[in-house]
Amino acid sequence: MSAAMQLVGVVAVTVAVAGWLAPVAEASYDADQNKSSTNFLFRGNLPVTDNHTFAKEALVARMQQLAAEQNLTFPETFYFVDLSLLDPFEVADAEVEIKYFKEHPNEGEYINWLTVGDVVHPEELPVEARLALARNLSHWQMDKLPQRMGAIDALLNSTTVHGPIVAYIHCEAGMDRTGEMSGSYYMHALNWTFHQALAYDDSIETRNISIYSQNAFQWYCYFLSVTYQPWQDCSLP
Ligand SMILES: *[C@@H]1O[C@H](CO)[C@@H](O)[C@H](O)[C@H]1NC(C)=O
Ligand SMILES: *[C@@H]1O[C@H](CO)[C@@H](O)[C@H](O)[C@H]1NC(C)=O
Ligand SMILES: *[C@@H]1O[C@H](CO)[C@@H](O)[C@H](O)[C@H]1NC(C)=O
Ligand SMILES: *[C@@H]1O[C@H](CO)[C@@H](O)[C@H](O)[C@H]1NC(C)=O
Ligand SMILES: *[C@@H]1O[C@H](CO)[C@@H](O)[C@H](O)[C@H]1NC(C)=O
Ligand SMILES: *[C@@H]1O[C@H](CO)[C@@H](O)[C@H](O)[C@H]1NC(C)=O
Ligand SMILES: *[C@@H]1O[C@H](CO)[C@@H](O)[C@H](O)[C@H]1NC(C)=O
After folding, report:
1. Is the pLDDT of residue 18 over 70?
2. For the whole model, what pTM was predicted?
């Protein structure tokens, strides 16, 4: 039985970006599902406090608030999947999260998906070359967006002995790598157009997504356009 309702919201945990708010997008909803065992997916920035501790309280408070705004019941007990997109240069921040889950293994786990974006802008290439590369994206893209989307689906379709899953996608600022991964998910799972997903990313962030993250996100759109979403318009708006 899949836990079919997914929630995509923005959680800001640091003082610097505490003003962030964004609407919560809802995926599918299975009426048979016990709402209290629903899995959730959120996005945001680095969940580390100024005191260099894991910002679990602030995160959960914000998640509860976002769920309540959508009339959803946030689970009292859950398994937290910390989907970090940090790179090896950000090890000091990652260590805080890794240490937390090492000390609280029943509360969840830390997963690291190195996410660096793409240097090549897909629209710079001739159409034939672009589409050939798009078809083969899962073989060459560093960020492995096609595989990552499958992994997020599998995650959101599972539950644990510790309860439903609350997954949190984040990088440092919650804008570029997080926008790339989340934006890809909006297209893949919520059936948003590339233009909608990009506009949403740019609207909830304090600045536009970086070009490398945008390239990777756009490559993923071209991948969708040659696979199961042939109607996608992947050109920049
Ligand atoms: C839903 O799940 C909760 C917690 O596991 C349980 O207490 C409750 O009885 C369930 N409700 C239904 C309708 O299955
Ligand atoms: C940091 O620690 C100080 C002293 O314990 C405390 O007063 C403060 O609230 C903490 N700040 C955060 C963001 O946790
Ligand atoms: C939540 O419920 C309230 C009261 O029934 C309703 O006014 C509101 O539109 C609902 N919000 C959403 C996002 O469904
Ligand atoms: C797909 O990419 C891989 C890795 O770069 C390469 O070895 C393979 O030849 C490519 N396949 C096609 C059909 O282009
Ligand atoms: C997850 O569940 C959805 C529907 O609930 C289904 O369409 C999808 O194929 C499932 N994905 C995986 C990876 O199991
Ligand atoms: C996804 O969106 C496209 C275009 O907006 C639409 O044609 C298609 O029917 C939608 N697919 C689903 C499964 O809702
Ligand atoms: C962000 O992107 C939008 C749409 O692509 C554009 O209209 C806007 O000027 C950009 N904003 C900044 C600050 O670059």
Report:
1. no
2. 0.85
